[in-house]
Amino acid sequence: MLLQEQRELVVEYGKKLVTTGLTDGTFGNLSVFDRESGLMAISPSGMDYFATTPEDVVVADLEGRVVEGTRKPSSELDLHRLFYQRRQDVNGVVHTHSTFATVLSCLRWSIEPVHYLVAYAGRRVPCIPYYPFGSLELAEAAWEGMKEAYNACLLGNHGLLAVGGSLSFAFDAAQQLEFLAKVYYYTRQAGGGVNLTPEELEAVLGKFQSYRQA
Ligand SMILES: [Zn+2]
C-alpha cells in the first residue's frame, strides 16, 4: 500500500478534528503530501472520521488523479493539490468548518492582528469571497488570497483553510485560528480591539519562525 505512514496520519488527525471540536460529522478534510513520490494522502469524501481506516484514505497525484484507493477523494482535492504544487514549504493541509472561523467567513471579516496567535497565519487572516465548495474556482481564489504570504485564510461563507510544513503544523494552525476567530469576534462585539503594531507583529513572526523550525 502506498504512503502507509501518511495514510495513518490522515486517520489520526481526522479523529482529532472531531475530538477537538473543529468539525462535526463528516465535514472538513485533510491531507499529507510526500514530496519524494509527488503523491498525497487525502481523506475520503463524506466518511465518518472514526470509521475511516488507512485503506480508506485516497492516494492522488498533483494532477488530481487517484493513484491508489477504492474511495472517492475529498471533494476539495483541488484546494489541497494547488498548495502542494505551488509551494515547496507546504506538506500538510487542513480544511474545517469550525464555528467561529465559519461565522467570520459569513460576515466576510478578515482577522486583524489583535492577538499574537495570528502569526500562525501571517500578519492577518484574509477572508476570500464565496465560491462553490469543491470547485477549482474556490481553490484558485484561496491560492490568490494566500500565495506565499499566508498559511491560512477564511473561505467566504464556508470555513477555514490552513496549510503548513507538516500536517501537525496545519492542524495546530486550524485549532489556534479557531480560538483567534472567537477572540476576534468577541473583541469586535465589545467595540473593537487594539491591533499589534507592525513592529510587535514582526517580532512575533520572527519568534514563530524559530519555533516552527525547532
Ligand atoms: Zn468545506
TrEMBL record:
Q: Keywords assigned by UniProt? A: Lyase, Metal-binding
Q: Which GO terms describe its biological process?
A: pentose catabolic process
SUPFAM superfamilies according to UniProt? AraD/HMP-PK domain-like (SSF53639)
> Its GO CC terms?
cytosol
The residues covered by the Class II aldolase/adducin N-terminal domain are 8-185
Q: Which Gene3D superfamilies match?
A: Class II aldolase/adducin N-terminal domain (3.40.225.10)
This entry's Gene Ontology molecular function terms read: L-fuculose-phosphate aldolase activity; metal ion binding
Q: What is its EC number?
A: 4.1.2.17
> What Pfam families does this protein's entry cite?
Aldolase_II
What is the protein's given name? Answer: L-fuculose-phosphate aldolase
- Organism this protein belongs to: Candidatus Flavonifractor intestinigallinarum
